[in-house]
Design goal:
By secondary structure, the chain is α/β, with parallel strands linked by helices. It contains 17 helices and six strands. It comes from Paenibacillus macerans (Bacillus macerans).
Length: about 425
């Protein structure tokens, strides 16, 4: 996939994204810039944008670095503002005194007071890419009414303030955030944010979760999962890059995403082949089929096919039957695909039969020769299932299934010979 170098994007993101708020700047030392962490953080935003698109519908829009790290603006007017916290070590970004936790809450408070986010229609989501816990974060998660949220705010305040209102010892890392969030004048907004607060943690790594969700919700065939996942991840990254370069907000609509996914899925499906998955029939299974006096074998007998040709036909029939069942169970083909395929085979058989009948006026073939020629013409003309290439045995095997039901036949008089009540019998050779 294509990843943007964050060093070149830093200034662009400031102009098109949300306003970044932090403590007064300190001198930056090159050794402390942690460029790999920044690259990972941006790649996490790209991946999470894909994750959120899986749950979208209709006119929803997913943005990166506009309202939040990732945000979902829904067609009903509500917003999911998602702050992502990557965990690459044993650190806990939601411990009670974690800088990441209080910086996130502080930034949300500023967004609300500056009317960048409407506290009444916004869900404030803190998404942590590991299984981490924190008692204050959990209490905020459980506060689903304003009354409970205000109580949670008061309880959390005790972590940093004495009963007298005097500050306990605060680290310079988060002192600004604590003082602002627990300022009495900010209690209402802070409590409303707590009421709409949602904490999400995951047991597995983020990429594994994303891949599993992508394949499940897109209902992808097993063979296409890796290919389309990698493609769509790269497409989102490329699309966001183009928006930044054109000085536009990094927003992707669900409809745009869906259109691209359908198009690339169709493109790859057109290149797909159905692969033989079932084991080959054993010699015993083939012989048992021969001894069963199946109608499709009788049909070959009356047009004077030899023993070798009948053994080949039995193999084709059994292989087609078992693989057809497996493909259907896997979802590679549908009942509609099979019905349409059978109808196509019958039409092709009928067309070839009529053409050979006209040609035979000059060939003067016997009925048996004409029937065998029809069989070989059909067998030698593979037919695919829509856009899916089928193995060479499959078309012949499906023709045999149709002839077994006497829906088609090879001998010009096959109906008189094989239809119930014809009074005729066939002696296999």
């Amino acid at each position: 996939m294509l990843l943007i170098a964050l060093l070149s994007l830093n200034q662009k993101l400031k102009s098109v994204g949300k306003t970044k708020r932090d403590t007064p700047k300190e001198e930056v030392k090159l050794a402390n810039t942690h460029v790999p962490d920044k690259v990972y953080a941006y790649s996490l935003q790209v991946r999470h944008a894909l994750y959120e698109l899986q749950s979208c519908s209709s006119n929803d829009i997913v943005s990166v670095e506009v309202l939040e790290d990732v945000a979902v603006e829904k067609s009903d007017g509500t917003v999911d503002a998602i702050q992502l916290k990557s965990v690459l070590s044993n650190n806990n970004p939601i411990s009670n005194r974690a800088k990441d936790l209080w910086k996130t809450l502080y930034n949300w408070l500023l967004s609300v007071t500056n009317h960048e986010l409407d506290v009444h229609n916004t869900k404030f989501i803190l998404f942590v890419t590991a299984d981490r816990k924190g008692s204050i974060a959990s209490s905020f998660q459980d506060a689903d009414t304003l009354e409970k949220a205000q109580a949670a705010w008061e309880s959390a305040k005790q972590e940093f303030y004495k009963d007298t209102g005097e500050e306990k010892e605060l680290s310079d890392e988060y002192a600004l955030y604590i003082r602002s969030f627990f300022k009495p004048g900010n209690k209402l907004f802070a409590s409303q944010i707590i009421q709409k607060f949602c904490l999400k943690t995951i047991q597995t790594n983020h990429t594994a979760l994303l891949y599993e969700t992508f394949c499940e919700r897109a209902m992808l065939e097993e063979d296409l999962g890796d290919i389309l996942f990698t493609y769509m991840l790269g497409w989102i990254d490329k699309r966001l890059s183009e928006l930044v370069e054109n000085k536009q907000p990094m927003c992707i609509s669900y409809q745009e995403y869906r259109t691209e996914l359908i198009a690339i899925r169709r493109e790859y499906n057109q290149k797909q082949s159905l692969k033989e998955l079932a084991p080959r029939p054993t010699a015993q299974e083939v012989q048992e089929e021969m001894n069963a006096l199946r109608r499709y074998v009788e049909q070959l007998d009356v047009v004077e096919c030899d023993y070798t040709e009948k053994i080949e036909a039995i193999n084709d029939y059994l292989r087609a039957s078992t693989n057809r069942t497996i493909w259907a169970k896997r979802g590679d083909i549908s009942d509609g695909n099979l019905t349409s395929y059978q109808e196509t085979l019958v039409r092709k058989w009928d067309t070839k039969r009529k053409i050979l009948s006209l040609q035979n006026k000059h060939l003067n073939l016997s009925p048996e020769e004409l029937g065998k020629l029809l069989y070989l013409e059909c067998k030698n003309d593979p037919v695919n299932i829509d856009h899916l290439y089928v193995p060479d045995f499959f078309t012949a095997g499906c023709y045999h299934a149709l002839s077994d039901d006497v829906e088609i036949g090879w001998h010009p008089n096959y109906k008189d010979i094989f239809m119930p009540g014809s009074g005729l019998s066939v002696q296999l050779k």
